[in-house]
Structure formats: C-alpha cells, structure tokens
Specification:
Largest sheet: 6 strands, antiparallel
Strand content: 15-25%
Bound molecules: heme C
Oligomer: single chain
Order of helices and strands: HHEEEHEEEH
Number of helices: 4
Distance between the termini: 79 Å
Number of strands: 6
Structural class: alpha+beta
Radius of gyration: 23 Å
Shape: globular
Number of domains: 2
Length: about 180
C-alpha cells in the first residue's frame, strides 16, 4: 500500500518534470508571426483571387510614391473572396527603375510593376494589436518576396520588429495603418 503511494507520487513528479522540460521546447518552436506555411498559402490564394486587380473599378492614377515602396505607385481597392470569405483588399503597384516616369507610365500603363504590396483586413483577432491586417509583398510576377533570412513576406509581417510593414504603417495618422487617407 505504502509502496503504491510512493510510486504514484514518483510518477506524478516524473510527469511534472517532463512537462517542465517539454514546454520550453514547445514555446521555442512557436509559429512566427509571418512567413509560415499558412501565410504563404493565404498569400498564394489571394494572388489567384485578385488576378484581375488591374481591372478593378476603384483604382487611382499613377502618382509619386514614398520610401520604401517605389518612385511611382498605383492603388487598387476591392472586396476579394479567399477560401469562401470576403475581405477588404488594398493593393499597390510599385514602379521604378531606369527611365520610368509618370509620362512613360501614362503612355504604357501595362509597364510591369517591380513589386505589388497588399494589405488585407482579416477576421477580428487575426492580429488584434495591429488592426488585423495581413501584409504581403509580391514580386511583379506574383511570387511572394522573401527577406534576407529567407522568410516569406506574408502574414503579420515583421510584427514586433523595429522595421517593416507593421512598424512603419503604425505611424500612419489615425491609427488605421493607412497612409493614403492622411492629408
Ligand atoms: C518605412 C515605411 C514603410 C514600410 C516598411 C512599408 N510601408 Fe507601405 N507605405 C508606406 C508609405 C509612406 C505609404 C504611402 C506612400 C506610398 O504609397 O508609397 C505606404 C503605402 C502602402 C500601401 C497603400 C495603402 C496606404 O497605406 O497608403 C500598401 C498596401 C502598403 N504600403 C503595403 C505595405 C507592405 C505589404 C509592406 C511590407 C512588405 C509595407 N507597406 C512596408 C510606408 C511603408
């Protein structure tokens, strides 16, 4: 009898010890705020769903952009359905490079963008600290760009870091993470 009690105490202690050892290991393997498979999957599905974005009714003219996006930019807005859920999507073509001016863009609106940066308002709680925006940067051909560490720029991009989509857009007026409505 006494032996059984001692044994069960030992077993409990062993379980607790195992839990203590396992949990720190779990937290170090925690999902990153961006660049995970689900972020890439959403970004890829989004690109397919917004394939016709340059034909959206709500779009701006070409205008001079700000650092770091491109010398010239063009904005697009629409509701886009991804995996059955409709989302507010703001996309931006970023142009630059040798010889590109507002005049050359007006003359040839099919000039390929260097990069396409997109903000998607995700479901409440997706990123409650940062207005639930999903961020993604595509190259002109729709491939998702990666940072120097090889992480795909899709998801809560650079959340918690001093530089990147979230840190910079947090400075936009009104706390909405949008510069386009700041005057
Ligand atoms: C260093 C600051 C900075 C960083 C980093 C940054 N942006 Fe921006 N972003 C801006 C500014 C300034 C504008 C407005 C001028 C322009 O469009 O170039 C803007 C505009 C935008 C817009 C149009 C909506 C708006 O706010 O006007 C989108 C979409 C966007 N950025 C996406 C992104 C994504 C995605 C990333 C990360 C991959 C990113 N941005 C990183 C500064 C930044």
């Amino acid at each position: 009898m006494r032996f059984k009690v001692v044994l069960s105490v030992l077993v409990s202690l062993a379980l607790i010890a195992t839990a203590v050892v396992i949990f720190p290991a779990c937290s170090s393997g925690q999902a990153m705020p961006f660049g995970e498979q689900e972020d890439v999957d959403f970004g890829t599905a989004l690109w397919t769903a917004m394939a016709d974005y340059q034909g959206w009714k709500m779009q701006s003219d070409f205008y001079p952009g700000g650092t770091p996006h491109g010398m010239f930019v063009r904005l697009y807005y629409n509701m886009v359905t991804v995996d059955g859920t409709p989302y507010h999507v703001i996309a931006k073509d970023n142009y630059g490079g040798e010889g590109v001016t507002l005049e050359t863009l007006a003359a040839d609106p099919t000039t390929p963008a260097m990069a396409v940066t997109v903000m998607v308002q995700r479901e409440a709680g997706y990123d409650a600290d940062n207005n639930d925006w999903f961020w993604v940067k595509y190259m002109g051909d729709g491939m998702i760009e990666k940072n120097a560490d090889g992480m795909a720029l899709a998801g809560r991009v650079a959340k918690g870091m001093e530089m990147g989509c979230i840190a910079c857009h947090a400075k936009a007026k009104g706390g909405d993470y949008l510069f386009s409505n700041d005057h």
